[in-house]
Design brief:
The chain is an alpha+beta fold. 43% of the residues lie in helices and 22% in strands. The longest helix has 26 residues. It is globular.
């Protein structure tokens, strides 16, 4: 009986989560739409910790921006100088426009010359409907 009860709670949770996601997308319909952004960084030799600290400080500020949904930092387990950000935004136009001009992002770009090997590789992804 307990496995059945756990399964029901799981399905209920998934249904509520799906509702929240659908509702969020519905409210953003008139904007640029949901976008997933992958940002690949390469750090300078032995500057991985400095890069991660700067990224964490940047993300703390980015989280306060409108249309922010989430950012997850991934580290290549075979080469810690490879860092990947998996970002989700509720409005593509905001990300490509106003977000790129925020003082904290412009400051990070300037400061990143101390720890990144070059500019990031940025790609944009949309969910298949």
């Amino acid at each position: 009986m307990k496995p059945l009860k756990a399964s029901i709670y799981f399905l209920l949770f998934m249904g509520i989560s799906s509702f929240k996601i659908t509702t969020g997308n519905f409210h953003q319909h008139n904007m640029g739409g949901m976008i997933t952004v992958l940002v690949k960084y390469k750090t300078q030799p032995s500057k991985e910790d400095m890069a991660l600290k700067a990224l964490q400080e940047l993300i703390a500020k980015v989280k306060k921006e409108p249309h922010y949904v989430s950012i997850v930092i991934h580290i290549d387990p075979n080469d810690k100088s490879n860092i990947l950000l998996h970002e989700q935004w509720a409005d593509e136009d905001y990300y490509k426009g106003a977000h790129m001009k925020t003082p904290h992002l412009l400051q990070f770009i300037n400061d990143s010359r101390q720890f990144l090997a070059g500019p990031p590789d940025i790609s944009f992804w949309k969910t298949q409907d």
